[in-house]
Amino acid sequence: MNASPNPVPSPVWCPRVTVACVVADGGRYLMVEEEVNGRLAYNQPAGHLDDGESLITAAVRETLEETGWTVELDALVGVHQWRSTEHGHGVLRFSFAASPVKHDPARPLDSGIRRALWLTRAEVAALGDRLRSPLVLKSIDAWLAGQRVPLSALSSLLPEDRYP
């Protein structure tokens, strides 16, 4: 039986799945300044999970694309559910602890990303409503509280990852 080229939408609600990295280095956290709907917002390196991609691969990919930093994931910090005030959709965000490995300052950053920067927790908190979502501080605070789930708790039955 052939699959339809235009599958019928499922009546099951599906949230938007995103990944983010809390990349810490000496009391500072890697952040991005990005243009979102005509305003500047601040976020961890983060983005959407692509079809056919593992959560781990997505987190490493998004961090590289948005900051020029190659990172190594250490643990899952948390899974957060939220309804975005930007677009109104439900979001399921997987936040990872990551260590910086290598930076490529010549690498072009994703469209809309103005710059990557390192900020302390106090500097992040001082951004207030300029944070992209309340999940930014929630993820940092979970990291600071030592919340860690081993990456082995995640598994993927997808074919081999397609991103280095």
Automatic annotation (TrEMBL):
Entry superkingdom: Bacteria
Cofactor: Mg(2+)
Keywords linked to the UniProt accession: Hydrolase, Magnesium
Top-level EC class: hydrolase
Secretion signal, residue range per the UniProt entry: none
PROSITE patterns: NUDIX, NUDIX_BOX
One Pfam entry name: NUDIX
EC number: 3.6.1.-
A molecular-function term among this protein's GO annotations: thiamine diphosphate phosphatase activity
CDD domains reported for this sequence: NUDIX_Hydrolase
Ranges where the Nudix hydrolase domain occurs: 14-144
Subunit structure of this chain's protein: Monomer.
Record family assignment: Belongs to the Nudix hydrolase family. NudJ subfamily.
Protein name, entry field: Phosphatase NudJ
Species per Swiss-Prot/TrEMBL record: Dyella marensis
